[in-house]
Amino acid sequence: MATDISVLKDDLVTANHILAEHHVVDSFGHVSVRNPENPKHYFLSRARAPHCVEIGDITEFTYEGAIVGREPGRPYSERFIHGAIYEARPDVMAIVHNHSPNVVPFTVQKKRKLVPIMHMSAPIGSDIPNWDIANKFGTTNLLVTSMDMGRDLAGFLGARPVSLMRGHGCVIAAKALRDVVFTSIYMEINAEMLTKAYALGDGDVQPMSDGEVQANAGARAGFTIERGWENWCREVNRPYYAQEWNMGAGFSKTDK
After folding, report:
1. Which residues are catalytic?
2. Which of 28, 32, 187, 211 is most deeply packed, by most CB within 10 A?
3. Cα dihedral angle (97, 102, 104, 107), rounded to 10 degrees?
4. Quick check: is 231 in a domain?
5. pLDDT (tens digit, 9 = 90+) per residue, 9-23?
6. Is residue 236 part of a domain?
7. What is residue 2's predicted lDDT score, i.e. its pLDDT?
8. Domain membership flag for residue 23
9. φ, ψ for residue 121 (rounded to 5)?
10. Containing domain of residue 76, as a range?
């Protein structure tokens, strides 16, 4: 069934509000979705605090960050993160870039790794790299403000769902908008829990095994995604557009 672009854009507004409500983004950070009718374009808000984003803020961009059609206002300077990843990853349909407070500490130290310890966070994966902009671009303000920088980050991300960004935050890529929001929320929750676990265990924790990560990530299908999305829409007083619950290779009606 063809995607209703107007609903997709409205869901993008909702995604901004949900991520803000769950402290994944604050006045900064952004979420985008690929245009299914033109895969070389994507939708992203104009530069505005996510909790304030409205439908009129949604802007269409090319990979290179050029505005297509209507220009509602100044774009995010780091839109190149999104364009470069969409360009490199045809499988990716939605992206979040954030500076979530419990994730950032893992970007600036090497003693404790960010690993999944809770089943809901399995889709962040076991192999989470930490991109350092200084390795190629030297002294900067740490922002990704060009396609050259964005492509370097995209190459470092590779086929993974997540990459940290040293002294900055992280980027999350997924196959759908609701999916990337889900992963972003539970990545932040996992980071907070992991920090506590490292403290309680004097640095010794038992992360999920690769097999457990695959079993949980593969089972997170429509039933799980929709259950979360419907609840989060209610939390931020946004419309819920129901999608198919009985979907996905790992579809199961068992609770998570």
Report:
1. 78
2. 32
3. -120
4. no
5. 999 999 999 999 999
6. no
7. 47
8. yes
9. -95, 5
10. 5-206
The pTM of the full predicted model, rounded to 2 decimals, is 0.93
243 occurs within a structural domain: no
122-138: pLDDT as tens digits:
999 999 999 999 999 99
Closest alpha carbon to 12 in 2, 1, 36: 36
Give the β-pairing of 58-62 and 41-45: antiparallel
What's 108's domain CATH number?
3.40.225.10
Residue 244 pLDDT grade (very low, low, confident, very high; cuts 50, 70, 90): confident
The total domain count for the chain is 1
Q: How many residues does the chain have?
A: 256
